[in-house]
Specification:
Creatine Amidinohydrolase; four-stranded antiparallel β-sheet; three-stranded antiparallel β-sheet
Length: 276
């Protein structure tokens, strides 16, 4: 197992600043996410805001982890049965009832900020609303397991325990990741229980919690564009993502903005700060 970075107090504050701006990017795009717009038009708006307002870079644009296909857009926009890495397109027009995940990562001052948020277009379907809300709860169940003394596998145990009674399934192939001065670092964060030992939480660790939850079975299928991942059974999929730092007594959230949703009422470890 590779070493997990323990961030200094100054590094954590730098991550808090870039995390807040990554969350602010999702606040900015929210009014534009509606029926009749293309996912490419949303991507264009977010790239412009990233560069000209936030004075940052898109970490996704041109990203190439070694699969030979650089990612062609500034954000990932995944609609309905797309699990992750949906490539924005002028041909993909949002319509009423769609559920949409927008995943953004920015780089600024040598640090990365990464988060994603679900949107429901117009009047929601019963199934879509239920899945979006359940996935929000699943993510928070995993986050609530974060505290010194616990281990990373406790995130997967908590996420699985939350969704299993609901008849939903969690994607196994993708998970969260360490983040800081690198986009994707150690550890890989599983959202289902695994049999191998996992590291224990230590103050200063920073990582994402981002379960991908399917309304049907967990199995995935890769499209031939080199990036887009869909549900094999064409069922709906949803995902939320926040950055978490381990503290001396529990955790804190680094991707915080005025427009981020309030955590579920049962969350005990964190309270959204007030914004003037």
């Amino acid at each position: 197992m590779s070493k997990i970075t323990i961030h200094t107090a100054d590094e954590i504050e730098a991550m808090r600043r870039v995390g807040a701006e990554a969350a602010d990017l999702l606040d900015f795009i929210t009014p534009y996410v509606k029926a009749g717009v293309s996912t490419l038009s949303l991507d264009d708006l977010m790239l412009d805001y990233t560069v000209n307002t936030l004075k940052a870079k898109s970490a996704c644009l041109g990203y190439n982890p070694g699969n030979g296909v650089p990612y062609p857009r500034a954000t990932c926009i995944s609609v309905n049965n797309v699990i992750c890495h949906g490539i924005p397109s002028e041909k993909k027009i949002l319509k009423n009832g769609d559920i949409v995940n927008i995943d953004v990562t920015i780089e600024k001052d040598g640090f990365f900020g990464d988060n994603s948020r679900m949107f429901i277009i117009g009047k929601p379907t019963i199934a879509g609303k239920r899945l979006v809300e359940a996935t929000w709860g699943c993510m928070w169940a995993g986050i609530e397991a974060v505290r010194p003394g616990n281990c990373f596998n406790d995130i997967g145990i908590a996420c699985q325990k939350f969704v299993k009674p609901l008849g939903l399934s969690i994607v196994h192939e993708y998970g969260g990741h360490g983040i800081g001065r690198v986009f994707h670092g150690e550890p890989h964060v599983c959202h289902v229980p695994i049999s191998m030992p996992t590291a224990r939480f230590e103050p200063g660790m920073i990582f994402t919690v981002e379960p991908m939850v399917n309304a049907g079975k967990r199995h995935i299928m890769d499209l031939n564009d080199g990036w887009t991942v869909v549900t094999k059974d064409r069922s709906l999929s949803a995902q939320w993502e926040l950055e978490v730092v381990v503290t001396e007594t529990g955790y804190d959230i680094l991707t915080v903005s005025k427009g981020m949703p309030e955590p579920p009422e049962w969350v005990k470890g964190w309270k959204k700060p007030s914004f003037a």
